[in-house]
Write a structure and sequence with these properties.
The chain is α+β, with helices and mostly antiparallel strands and 250 residues long. The chain is 19% helix and 29% strand. The strands form two sheets. The protein has a six-stranded antiparallel β-barrel with strand order 5-8-7-6-9-10. Strands 1-4-3-2 form a four-stranded antiparallel beta sheet, with helices on one face. A hairpin with a 2-residue loop joins strand 6 and strand 7 (189-200). The radius of gyration is 21 Å and the shape is globular.
Amino acid sequence: EWVRSHAPADGSVEVRDVTDDFACIGMWGPDARDVLGQATGDDLSNDAFPYLTARQLTVAGKPAWAQRVSYIGELGWELYLANTDAGAVWDALLELGQAHGIRPAGYKALDSLRLEKGYVYWSTDVTPEDNLLEAGMGFCADMAKGDFIGRDALAKRKADGLQSRLRTVVLEGNALPAYGAESVWHDDQIVSRLRSAGHAHTIDRSIAYCYLPLPLAKPGTGVEIELFGERVPAKVTLPTHDPKGTRLKV
């Protein structure tokens, strides 16, 4: 409804909800290019299909709109295709990937990996009450392109100065799992609450995001997370997986 309400009144734009017509298959990992390459005759090289681009492919004989993006921090593609074609493409990719150890993964695996990568989740890490700058997503708004909804508010926040930053915190030891919304303590005062939280399987630690006042937002700063009535030490850190994003662009 928001999109419809902001469409041009002259009828030059048609808005249709096609959610039920399409499926999305996310295929990610170091061998994603090798596996997908067996299912298509299209060029998937870095030069022909660079990171953050999209184009039409034929995958296992079916048309698919492929986006070279990743929500887990590894090389890969999202494939958007007709619901009626999704099952056949899924089966083909799963078969072709057997030699590479391919495995289906569910939402919790995806959530764990994106937490390690430092990727945010709309409605939890970023809400209408937050702003792009403090969430570390200022690169998503081009202030030089002219007017857009929210530009004035964003410019004012930038001019006034940031009050906090969204940061990754890793709990020390084999702590109990954090689920989100737990209190964050520093010097015996509550300074924030967790947003997203989960288990980082790569480092075998509980991991979470929270907005911290700027003096506490530096990597290496110690805080405490209240879990089931106990305060557990935690450290502010950079994303624990490939913080420079090099693995996405190979």
